[in-house]
Amino acid sequence: MKTKGEVFFFAVCVAFFGFMGVQALALMGEGRAGEIGSALWPLIALAASLGFSVVLLVRAVRSPRRAAAAQAADRDEGDESRRRRQAVALSTACFFVYLWAVSLIGFILATLLFIPAFAFALGERRVKVLVTAPLVLTTVMSAVFLKFLSIPFPKGIGIFAAFSRLFY
């Protein structure tokens, strides 16, 4: 086994996403028949998360030799593991700031700021990516959810709400 902790974590993920998937199935009856709406998206996300968790759990249980070699290599590379921990801490902090900021400054501005900050926290340093990715991803998400599916995002408050209304 990789480590008992990883196997346990992936098993908890499978149980959690499985339970939440069952709960999301109850939402499928809500809304109009044939409508793709807010009841379908949680189910799609949960199904994908459940599938990935099952794959990771199976890999963690099946590959004991590669895991032991990887653990030995990780012990030798203390700087790399410290860098990974910093990336996880920074990306988690970015996510919580984003959750807080989206209600204050609205989805569009918060997402435009979050995507490059999150990518930078994960180690991306190419300026072209840090500038292009937020523009493309925010535009695509806004077009899909706001225009095609008519699912509104938070607009923010004050002047930020007025800015968001230009796009809604």
Polypeptide structure, described:
- It is flat and about 55 Å long.
- It starts with a helix and ends with a helix.
- With 168 residues, it is mainly α.
- It has 2 domains: 1-76; 78-168, no CATH class.
- The protein has 7 helices and no strands.
- The model has no long low-confidence stretch (mean pLDDT 81).
- The longest helix has 28 residues, at 78-105.
State the main characteristics.
single chain, 168 residues, mainly alpha, 2 domains, 7 helices, flat
Helix/strand structural class: mainly alpha
Radius of gyration: 20 Å
Largest sheet: none
Categorize the overall geometry.
flat
Helix content: over 70%
Number of helices: 7
Number of strands: 0
H and E string? HHHHHHH
Compact overview of the structure:
The chain is an all-alpha fold. The protein is built from seven helices and no strands.
Write the layout of secondary structure elements.
Layout: H1 4-25, H2 40-62, H3 64-76, H4 78-105, H5 107-121, H6 127-148, H7 159-165
Helix pairs in contact: 1-2, 4-5, 5-6
